[in-house]
Automatic annotation (TrEMBL):
<protein>
    <submittedName>
        <fullName>Exodeoxyribonuclease III</fullName>
    </submittedName>
</protein>
<dbReference type="Pfam" id="PF03372">
    <property type="entry name" value="Exo_endo_phos"/>
</dbReference>
<keyword id="KW-0460">Magnesium</keyword>
<feature type="active site" description="Proton donor/acceptor">
    <location>
        <position position="146"/>
    </location>
</feature>
<feature type="domain" description="Endonuclease/exonuclease/phosphatase">
    <location>
        <begin position="5"/>
        <end position="248"/>
    </location>
</feature>
<feature type="site" description="Transition state stabilizer">
    <location>
        <position position="148"/>
    </location>
</feature>
<feature type="binding site">
    <location>
        <position position="148"/>
    </location>
    <ligand>
        <name>Mg(2+)</name>
    </ligand>
</feature>
<dbReference type="InterPro" id="IPR037493">
    <property type="entry name" value="ExoIII-like"/>
</dbReference>
<keyword id="KW-0479">Metal-binding</keyword>
<feature type="active site">
    <location>
        <position position="107"/>
    </location>
</feature>
<feature type="binding site">
    <location>
        <position position="248"/>
    </location>
    <ligand>
        <name>Mg(2+)</name>
    </ligand>
</feature>
<dbReference type="GO" id="GO:0006281">
    <property type="term" value="P:DNA repair"/>
</dbReference>
<feature type="binding site">
    <location>
        <position position="146"/>
    </location>
    <ligand>
        <name>Mg(2+)</name>
    </ligand>
</feature>
<comment type="similarity">
    <text>Belongs to the DNA repair enzymes AP/ExoA family.</text>
</comment>
<feature type="binding site">
    <location>
        <position position="247"/>
    </location>
    <ligand>
        <name>Mg(2+)</name>
    </ligand>
</feature>
<dbReference type="InterPro" id="IPR036691">
    <property type="entry name" value="Endo/exonu/phosph_ase_sf"/>
</dbReference>
<feature type="binding site">
    <location>
        <position position="8"/>
    </location>
    <ligand>
        <name>Mg(2+)</name>
    </ligand>
</feature>
Amino acid sequence: MTRIATFNVNGVNGRLPVLLKWLGETRYDVVCLQELKTSDDKFPVEAIRDVGYGAVWHGQKSSNGVAVLARGKDPVERRRGLPGDPDDTHSRYLEAEIDDLIVGCIYLPNGNPAPGPKFDYKLRWFERLVTYSRSLLDGRTVLCGDYNVVPTEKDAVVPRRWLGDAVFFPESRKAYARMLGLGWVDAMRRIYPGKGIYTYWNFSYRGGYDRSSGLRMDHLLVSPSLAQTIQAAGVDVETRGWEKPSDHAPAWIDIGG
């Protein structure tokens, strides 16, 4: 069995104590991180190695950034960045091979304020992902990360709060649905088809977090050959209540084979 997790850390150096505590307590096999907010040379690779993980990363100063970690081994980088736009300088996609598993780590653009140029960029980026993902469907592949998309109303505690947000716009949800239409399987929904599952909550000015703002926008999509092996899934919600947490909580799945 292999346990794969995805975690938008919202600043890998600023939240390093949270990340290291979580890695040490969970010991997941494969971990994808998003929103590193650091340049390549400032990525805390030694601290991550000290808790037992090899890593590849694709950083960007102050924003974006993605990484793939593997417990007890070094991931082999396959690709950084999506094809289709040579002028795109954002660090939002990193692909690695770990044994016979292909892992794509995704930090999809948020798209706000929408409509507008940022939303247009989001849709173009999403279309590049949909197109490129076709080439990975036949392998043992997981495409996971912060998709910045709330696929359905059951993925929000209070859907009406998000009607004006790019993560809930119909165009965003349709792009996600196109990926599922290609054959990608939403692993969390394979285990929990109708349950309210959330991976993100707004920060609260009073401390803690606003539970009524819960959204599911961190997803693990698996190729058809892996879909048959999904054994379990969950969200480490407790991390959202730790000191100086990210606004996201890690989502994870267990696969066999």
